Queue: 3 jobs
Job 1
Amino acid sequence: MTGLTFAWSALGGDPALLPRVSTVVREGALHGRLPVRELARACVGACALAAAELAARRSGTTDMPRVRVDDGAVATAFVSERHLLVDGRAPQTFAPLSRFWRTSDGWVRTHANYPHHRAHLLTALGVPADVDAVAAALAERSSAEVEEAVYAAGGLAVALRTAREWAAHEQAVAVAARPLVERERLDAAHARVLAPITGTPPLPAAGLRVLDLTRVIAGPVATRTLALLGADVLRVDAPRLPELPDQHTDTGFGKRSTKLDLAADRRTFEELLAAADVVVTGYRPGALDRFGLSPEALAERRPGVVVAQLSAWGAYGPWRGRRGFDSLVQVATGIAALEGSPERPGALPAQALDHGTGYLLAAAVLRALTEQSYEGGSRCVRLSLARTAEWLVHGVGAGDAGGAVDVRTEDGLAYDDPGPWLAESDSALGRLRYARSPVSFAGGPTDWARPPAPWGTDPARWV
């Protein structure tokens, strides 16, 4: 089974649509020991196919647009944060204390990009914000001790494991027992009536309203993709938790951004929910339930809603409540060991768990909307970075082109310059260079309708 076939099946898609996908294979794109290029093209291909399917449904045609997945576009988009320039300035992707460290018996990786996570890390270690001091403190402790002590203090550190060691872990067992894409019908709400789309280009998500309660990369990539496809996406952040500016810029294309205290301003949130079609969350499982944001509670107040949930470690198992990031999931699941050497752990050529899961999450939302138009019912879809990692390590075949292979010689077969898949735009944040979306189908959109806005500067209301 190819990667695209597996992903499309996990989304509940009709296998008869798979021949609509073709792939431009480019050597050198996302090169790694693991088949990350194959995973990336499968995730993007499934998302583009779901978009084309919904576009055909809303256009009232049985002639579904063809999908073309170009390794160059995919590879460029999967490192979009590295291609971003703001007035010529390149962002810093990892803070000085976000890195691999030697311990007394191996390695750990920490994540301290956010100020509060850095503070918790330093508190756990009892040292100042100095690289040498952190290195000395970690060198005296075992990897397991560091992992648990930093977690207990509210920080993020994960011990390096091999794939075999992770497979024996209770959390890995819980993750492997779940499907790549969890799909659930929550009630018997009436079938969704989708207005026909007649504009050019056809935007399959036109007129749909998406509440974006996500952070970092994976969730914002999903909602950025829905914005590309025409949705009115409103990102909602707590005033006390500002997003990293460059990260927000990279994933903010096509969206609006507002600040809202869910505890203090419930009325405003309920007004937004009353007109929302999709709610996307990217916090730890259960973390938002106290605000009435569980899938069941949302469907009760807004019948017919699609709820999309994303987490690092999954909604089950002993680590379900832990925070996590792509780099840390790579370390725990054996990816860093597989991509590294006996002397030092390594990493994938991109934060592919984040980006790949993001495109799959967008695909799951699009497929849920299509299914609703036939069958009704509020829907919940759920993905995790750890489950995507399980698929990468154990399920995606190297050399899988993910569809019919189209290798037009005039396009060339090498990936040595991202230029064709980059664009520039003026914005309130400055002159931006950015990666275009790799999600492409015949006649579909090629760029976002608006550049990103400064964090939290839009009103908390629908357009």
Job 2
Amino acid sequence: MAHRKFTLTKKLALIILLAATVSGLIFLTLQKVSNGLIDRYLNSEAYYESESSKSIAKFSKYVEANNLSSTDRKAFGQWVKKENYIMLTIYKDQLLQYDSNYSAEDESGYGVERETQYVQKHSFPVMFSDGEGRVTVDGFFSSRYYDVAFTLELLSATMIFLLIVLLGIRQSLSYLRTIHEEIHILEGGELEYEMTIRGHDELAMIAESIEELRKAFLDKLNAIETLQAESRSLVTEMSHDMRTPLTSLIMYLEFAKKEDGEFVSDKDRYIMNAYGKAIQLKKLSDDLFDYFLLDKEQEADLESIAVQEAIYDLISDQIAILRQEQFKVRIIGELPQVYITVNLEELGRVFDNILSNLLKYAEPKDEICITFNSNAEIFEIQLTNTIKIAGGSPESTGLGEKIISRMMNRMQGGFLSKQEGAKYNVVLKFRKSKV
């Protein structure tokens, strides 16, 4: 397991600290520059007088539009509140009529206080409804620019802070996406794909844990595959070892059977029984070998073939052999004009196994029914027979059915078998296909 030099928490803390430092310095720098420019261009005497004249003209229009007198203080207060950053003073007949800085307690000075030399010098004439008055407007005209500049500086610093943080965590996010993609690769079965281990943080620990899990799982699969290969090899060797003496035994017994004789002695009966058991052992050995050979083979090479082409000859041969062995066979239905997905070699082995089972276990006196059924997706062959009474037939191991089922599954079909009393039913299902 990797040693953690920097955890994600430490990395994020360092990134935030760096982003805060850089954005703070940029904010202070922008503020100094903007304040200097505002002080230089917007705090001059000429700018102040220009803005005052504009405000006086605006106020004069307000008075004229609303036909205000010099004592309509409520209307004056509303205009000052609306304009912002402005102090308004009104004199008439050299007496104070309104001052925006006065509170309710100071209103006693209205009509009493006289105008000063400053007012005389900096005031402008405005015509009220009750006569001409003198008006002064003092304002913090550049303050609004300071506020705008401060807002822009704060937004810029915030954007830089977020940008630095996002750039800082981009590498971790990219690595997280890489881990996510590689997990999907492993989910798809590509267990040979190695996880990318980068760095020493928690993400690297997760990637390394997944990598260790991948290796352990792959080792287990390899161990299982090795064990299966050994099992196949053992079964194959056993099958070959069984076949050699069985073949010799069958050959000697056949020679003994062919000896001419008028009477059936106990020796002849023993020879017949031994011959039957030898044949049974050889069939079991062949079935066992076929079963494990199927497990070892690759996927079947399938093709789309017409039912009549694939099934007709096989069914005809099977029926001919059964009737030759004195079995009664009845066919229900007809082969449809459709195509099925099969492998001809394995299909032949399926029917050979079914024929072998019928010859061994079916009662010849009762009828064997072969029924053809078809729907939109599946074509079925159903075989029904009566089971031979125990005594003359060998006991079934079920291995033949397993071989049939496995071969049908390899052909994307299905196999079902069911016994009800003395009746035995088998269904072969084939998947229909297009030409």
Job 3
Amino acid sequence: MNKILICDYQSALEESYDITFEALKNTLSDEYNAYEIKVCAYEDDDQLIQELQGAAGLITGFLEIGEKILDKADSLKYISVSGVGYGNIDCEAANRHGIKVCHIAEYCTEEVAEHTFALINALNRNLKFYTKDIEVEKNWKYHNISGGRTLSNQTLAIFGYGRIGRRVAQIAAGYNMKVIAVDPYADVLSAKANNVEIVTADEAFKRADIISNHMNLTEDNRHFFAKEAFSKMARKPMFINVGRGASVCEEDLYEALMEGQIRAAGLDVLEAEEPCLDECRLLGLTNVIMTPHSAFYSDDSIKALQKISGENLGYCLKGKQDMAAEIVRECK
């Protein structure tokens, strides 16, 4: 019997995959019963390799899948990434082994854009500071910290002007913010029509009061935000990362916060997908808010994520890749 494996870190596994099972059943139709479907938590690479024996398809959101694993997954034909980003998959290795990778092009734009502004507003209005000051220090004083400036008097620089970046820009417009964006693939005229100016990274570092990262992770932008970049941030901006953790060098971010090169940070992702929080130096800082890669998360988005990732894999296994239009990519 063929096998479909659903595997991820324990912290990322859903309580139920009924929606994924239903999507697989609908797309595979009469072939559904020919597959054994197994859900398991990742323990280590050796355990994953063992689980992949006999598997034609893998559904995962966050597991790092590289040459070591793919070289020993002889039956694997498709990987369905239950998310937008697929930087955790070594596409060159997948291509060498003839394995195609599916991902979800669109499902949580609203959630991530809202989360971005939840972090911006919370930091700009000093909510973490006030919560600690009231609950721990028992102080009922608003002037124990600088009042700062309204968002309407600040410039937002968006790195990565895709679906989410554009939605963030739309929300920023509601706050009457000046918006600039960094994206080599952006349509300059379209952005201008929406009052967004496309600029270089150095120009954004020079002008931004708030920087928000929405870039997909590539080898070119790994540790893009590191010591050199932080040193160029002239206006001591707030830094938001709801994109990819590996885009940021955490140690350099910590030093930038300590040295006042940036005034605050809102982080939905860290370099490690399962970070050791006991060793995280960013923990406990009153000008840093962290969330556990939850920007995408809502009841609506989880339903969409499970449905689409299941459909993608089902269509591929059924030989109907065209049915998953725009969300199936061959790794190159």
